[in-house]
Automatic annotation (TrEMBL):
InterPro entries according to UniProt: BBE (IPR012951), FAD-bd_PCMH (IPR016166), FAD-bd_PCMH-like_sf (IPR036318), FAD-bd_PCMH_sub1 (IPR016167), FAD-bd_PCMH_sub2 (IPR016169), FAD-linked_Oxidoreductase (IPR050416), Oxid_FAD_bind_N (IPR006094), Oxy_OxRdtase_FAD_BS (IPR006093)
Localization: Peroxisome
Cross-referenced Pfam families: BBE, FAD_binding_4
Protein name: Berberine bridge enzyme-like 21
UniProt organism field: Pseudolycoriella hygida
Family listed: Belongs to the oxygen-dependent FAD-linked oxidoreductase family.
Signal peptide start-end: 1-25
Span of domain FAD-binding PCMH-type: 69-242
GO cellular component, one term: peroxisome
Domain of life of the native organism: Eukaryota
Recorded GO MF terms: FAD binding; oxidoreductase activity
Cofactor: FAD
Keyword annotations from UniProtKB, A to Z: FAD, Flavoprotein, Oxidoreductase, Peroxisome, Signal
């Protein structure tokens, strides 16, 4: 974009600065940033949106589906190219304003929204996807939502990528913090399928990051990359051939009073099939318990064996659906996505506004009947909107040694998420959400291995978040942080520090 056009974009900024009353320090920062971007204007096509809560533009880029602690960053820079990201970072650093990369904006603690003194680098327009059918690889812009990823891969040769079932999640956060879903046990995490990345370092340099070029950074970004080192603008992924997958989805629904028998069946099934492919999930709410099994090529006898692990008293008849990979993706996406094209309508504003808070645990424990019975009482005393979700780990995820990538959680049987998404006035306040979760926490703690999932960030973890997210890999992550970002420019409450605290 040429200078006059950029000025046109930046001009309203001056007006906004005056009309909504920034502090003197903020005005100085904005003016410095603006002047720096103008100086580099021949290279820059970024869109700049300064804070103005009366502006539709600002409110739309600043859309936060999670209504807990709303944040109003100083400004948004929306780059159109990797060069724009480089310029944004150089100017941000020169103006001494922190920059926060944002892909899909699904961080539980909203770490991609920075704070009121910082600027968000919103990667929404870096979302191009190119499929290399022969090589079974795809180039995916870091701002693409999983909805677009799944649609584009499927419609360009029936390919898939293992990642989250929630299609509103951004590929950026998913791939840099792990990315777990129905296909992880078969094809690994999203991060395990990264071949290379374009990465903008804190000095604004563009680095090509691959296993054999910048290997330390490649290692660090494979699970520890969430806003810790710099900004990934593009990924190259290995993709899998999904055309021939004959998928079966089995869903069982029970009353919560059968908890002991169901939990027992679930853990046995997870353990027995820990080296295989199936996804085995269980969601417990105050209303009911749902068990979901997803696998391919199951015979009727296989299905019978699975169902027989559970008590026969069900709330609904067993549901067994045969489908292809894409139908499964669509069915488990969001209630709004009924047709394939609906996936392309998913946007950053599709997730409706509600409060959300969660805690997570990895577990490899098999509980005896006495321990399972101890879990039960707390389940009856929680509000609606709270849930306890279990997802099986193992298979391809656990075949990788714990220190081969920075994603350390490689020896668990399942991942547990305790979440609250308030559905009644009573539990809508943040304080109330925290109190309920802490109570429920005691339940999950019985199962805890001492690890939490960095993609389910939990701001309540204070002294031990590094250990819980990264285990023994934290030492190497800190060394790499010192090499790549010695000024700790990319920093937030739970980022990788320069030294072990
Ligand atoms: C409704 C919902 C369902 C979910 N389901 C699953 C699931 O099934 N499986 C699973 O594994 N996870 C799941 N998650 C968690 C999700 O994977 C993480 O929250 C993920 O980090 C979100 O990525 P994002 O790009 O949308 O988020 P963002 O908020 O944009 O980013 C998350 C973090 O990564 C940083 N970041 C983003 N992009 C970049 C980049 N390009 N370069 C460097 N840093 C970057 C941000 O600064 C921030 O710290 C779910 C989350 C939600 C809210």
């Amino acid at each position: 974009m040429k200078l006059p056009l950029l000025r046109k974009i930046l001009l309203p900024l001056i007006v906004l600065v005056n009309c909504i009353g920034f502090s003197n320090a903020s005005i100085k920062v904005i003016n410095e940033l603006k002047s720096c971007l103008e100086t580099n204007a021949s290279n820059t096509t970024s869109i700049f949106v300064a804070r103005n809560t009366h502006s539709e533009r600002y409110n739309s880029v600043n859309y936060q589906w999670n209504t807990n602690s709303e944040i109003f960053p100083l400004a948004y820079i929306v780059p159109q190219t990797t060069k724009d990201v480089q310029n944004a970072v150089r100017c941000g650093k020169a103006s001494k304003v922190r920059m926060f990369p944002k892909s899909g904006g699904h961080s539980y603690e909203k770490y991609s929204f920075g704070d009121s003194e910082s600027v968000v680098v919103d990667l929404a327009n870096l979302s191009e996807i190119r499929v290399n059918k022969a090589g079974k690889t795809a180039q995916i812009g870091a701002g693409a939502l999983l909805s677009k990823v799944y649609f584009t891969l499927w419609t360009n040769g029936k390919f898939g990528l293992p990642s989250t079932s929630c299609t509103g999640v951004g590929i950026g956060g998913a791939a840099l913090g792990g990315g777990y879903g129905f296909w992880s046990k078969r094809f690994g995490l999203t991060s395990d399928n990264v071949i290379g990345m374009d990465f903008v370092d804190p000095q604004g340099n563009l680095l090509k990051v691959k296993r054999n070029s910048n290997p330390d950074l490649f290692w660090a970004l494979g699970g520890g990359g969430l806003g810790n080192f710099g900004i990934v603008t593009n990924f190259e992924f290995k993709i899998f051939d999904a055309a021939s997958l004959n998928v079966k989805q089995i869903v069982l629904k029970f009353c919560v009073n059968l908890f002991e028998q169901i939990f027992s069946g679930f853990q046995t099934l997870v353990y027995e099939r820990r080296n295989g492919n199936p996804y085995i999930g269980m969601t417990i709410t105050p209303q009911d318990i749902t068990v979901k099994i997803i696998d391919t090529d199951l015979s009727d006898a296989d299905i019978r064996k699975i169902v027989d692990r559970f008590p026969p008293q069900m709330l609904k008849p067993v549901s067994v659906k045969s489908m292809d990979f894409f139908e499964l993706t669509l069915e488990n996406s969001t209630p709004e996505t009924k047709t394939p094209e609906d996936l392309l309508k998913v946007s950053r504003m599709s997730t409706s506004k509600h409060g959300y808070r969660a805690k997570s645990y990895f577990s490899s424990k098999i509980l005896n009947h006495r321990k399972i019975a101890q879990l039960k009482p707390s389940l009856s005393s929680v509000p609606s909107g709270i849930f306890l979700q279990f997802g099986s780990f193992g298979g391809a995820v656990n075949q990788i040694p714990k220190n081969e990538t920075s994603f350390v959680h490689r020896d668990s049987l399942y991942l547990i998420q305790v979440g609250i998404s308030p559905s009644d006035e009573h539990s809508k306040t943040e304080l109330q959400q925290r109190i309920w979760l802490r109570e429920f926490n005691n339940v999950a703690q019985v199962l805890d291995n001492g690890e939490s999932y960095q993609n389910y960030v939990d701001g309540e973890l204070k002294n031990d978040f590094l250990q819980r997210y990264y285990g023994d890999n934290v030492r190497r992550l800190i060394e790499i942080k010192r090499q790549i970002d010695p000024d700790n420019y990319f920093a937030y409450e739970q980022s990788i520090p320069l030294r072990n605290p």
